[in-house]
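Narrative of activities, Objective 1.

The group set out to show that a structural description can be obtained from nothing but a protein's sequence at a throughput compatible with the screening campaign. Below is one input-output pair from the validation batch, recorded exactly as produced.
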Amino acid sequence: MPVLHSLKRAGVLLLTAAALYATPAHPAAADEPGWTAEPAAGTAAVRPGGGRPYFYLSGTAGTVLEDRLAITNTTDGERTVTLRGADAYNTADGAFAVRPARESTGAGSWISFGAAATVKVPPHTRAVVPFTVTVPPASPPGDHPAAVVATEEGHEVGVRVHLRVGGPTLAALTVEDVSVRGRGAATVVAYTLVNRGNVALAPELSIRAEGRFGDVPGRGARTLPLELLPGQRVELTEPWPGAPVLDRVRLTLTVTAPGGARATAATSAWFLPWRLAGPLGGALLALGATTLSALYLVRSRRARRDPPAGATPVPEPEYELTGAAR
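Output recorded for this entry:
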């Protein structure tokens, strides 16, 4: 069961890759709990304003990495915040989410706050809490998405951890299950993306359309508003306002990502006006019924006229003409 659903329903932070990279860095907050959690000031992944929007750590298997989390209490009372690591994953629609503690058996379990797993923060005070990431010796190379989760009285705040283990990297993906849904302005192209490599991907999508009765506009290349994590599968839809009214179209989807990842998939779809679909379908059914009836009549007549295979033909009777010619 996913831990992150919505801020109002579960009191947790659900972030998309677009929010992480396209918006200014702000301390993470959930329903204004009276405190914030963010990476402490450092030199890695620093933005122009001086803050770090996430943690970025890298090292080889078997090493221990260190960083610090800053918790700021903006209220007049003391706050008690519990800290833990969590595995990160993509939800079915591509959003970024984290798993509960009992389900975090990957990179989230490598994160430890030691004796500082529970922190008491005095009023109007900023506490800086160190933590370690112990990378197991047998860890495969590539990206291992995780997050640091701070919890207090049902409020949860997640801070993203970009963790890369040194070694060969592979950027690879596939496009699957392409289909067309809806008609007119509501037409969308549905498809599934699967990250087959070991690094996170920022995919770019383009759609090419080929019609039987003329040119059909597709969709130019655009970067999708998500980050596809290694081993994850997401189901997406792409609006297609250029869908024709009457045509049979072959669609080809091409997805690329930095690092040389590229994949294509195709599908075909008929487009018929709603008003014509019923009469045209009835006419085709009637034509098919007429054709079958005609074939049945022709075969029946042949069966009555032609003798069965292997039967002895009956000779025509011979008549003797008598009488004198006139």
